[in-house]
Predict the 3D structure of the following.
Amino acid sequence: MYPDRLTNARAIERVFTLVETRRTGTVVVNGTRYARIESVANASVPPLWNVTVTALVSPEGLVREYRVAYDVTRDDGSVRSVVALSYTRVGETRVTPPPWVESIRNETTERRPLRPLS
């Protein structure tokens, strides 16, 4: 659970699996209601210790933002790390498809009958 490993869907799932959390309240952001989730107590996930988690989660399960903080001991001493992410403009962001997508949409597929397996 290092910073570069805390930014994808699997990592987010892992954080909530390894650290016990509970709902501590409700927050409204831009008219949308989110559950505030916090770690129950400072957890240890070796080699990490003093791990805390806070998050805002929509009723649909979208993690709008989260923060993970932890201490880790390295060869040169202990370090406090904090990773915080926020997802904004979900559903509003438009991605321009690359040019090759249109050529795939225009292709026709040849349909052949399936042969029986023997």
The radius of gyration is 22 Å. The first helix runs from residue 9 to 18.
